[in-house]
Design goal:
The chain is of the alpha/beta class and 327 residues long. It has eleven helices and ten strands. The strands form two sheets. It has an eight-stranded parallel β-sheet with strand order 3-4-5-6-7-8-9-10. Strand 5, helix 3 and strand 6 (118-121) form a beta-alpha-beta unit.
Amino acid sequence: MATQNTTFKLNTGNEIPAVGFGTWQDKDAQEDAVTEALKAGYKHIDTARMFAFRLQHPSPSSRYGTEPACGAAIRKSGVPRSSLFITTKLWNNSHHPSDVEPALDASLKDLGTDYVDLYLMHWPVAFGRGGAMIPKDSNGKTINGDTDYVDTWKAMEGVYKKGKAKAIGISNFSRKETERLIKETDVVPAAHQIEVHPYLQQLDACEWFRGKGIHVQQYSPFGNQNEIYSKGQNMGKLIDDPTLVEIGKKHSKNGAQVALAWGIAQGHSVLPKSKTPSRIRDNLAGDFRLDEEDLEKLRKVDKKMRFNDPSANFGFQFYVGEDGKVE
């Protein structure tokens, strides 16, 4: 299907494709899904060290993320590494400065590459060090570590300077946390991956990040389409919102494609996920132009509704002062 192949420039000077392929969840399906995505023409793959689990209610069987599946699919595809943009993330149990580079090395090994295009700090909270991805005490409470995210970032600056990560960034930070990070370190994050969609537009926050030279990436661009979000199950799906459907008909698109086009119109890269070949292709075609009338209508659907907030489970208050935070 037709796509504009939009890209955005990071503060490093490198280009990032506007539509990326998200690989959160469905770990066992990801090799086939990434294979389909690469066949469809995706050049931007988003993965993580820890990705195939429930943030709010992780089970004891939670396992590592989708990097091995992504790596296998990339190797089979025959697509040159140089033509791909690969993002992965540092998990919370590896925030100690001495753990950061070994964690990235493990990710690079699973991905089958000697560098990533973007390396993100997944969350601004450290867990206890060790092999447990979500360490728990005898009462089932998450064990947090004592590493400050500023110290973690300084170690990430080291792998950036070594070329193992062509850019480094953050995920799930508040503006206050980001401001402190910038003030106390040398490298301004190249990107910030957060929950943004037409029901949680975060216009002020996104403008603030843009003003700092930080590119915004949207995870969960379809909002409550993801069944993992219990908060969004007793309401209509974002992609079925009448405004999105109406605009979609005007452009011969569906509501999901309109949600993606809205994000791209904001200057963001968007990270839809699917394991269904037809939807994988359809999502890539979400890179099309909305007119100002469409954008004005979409501004009115903002509910400031956040679907993802694992604060209680992680033992850390995320998104303080940001839209959609329920105190």
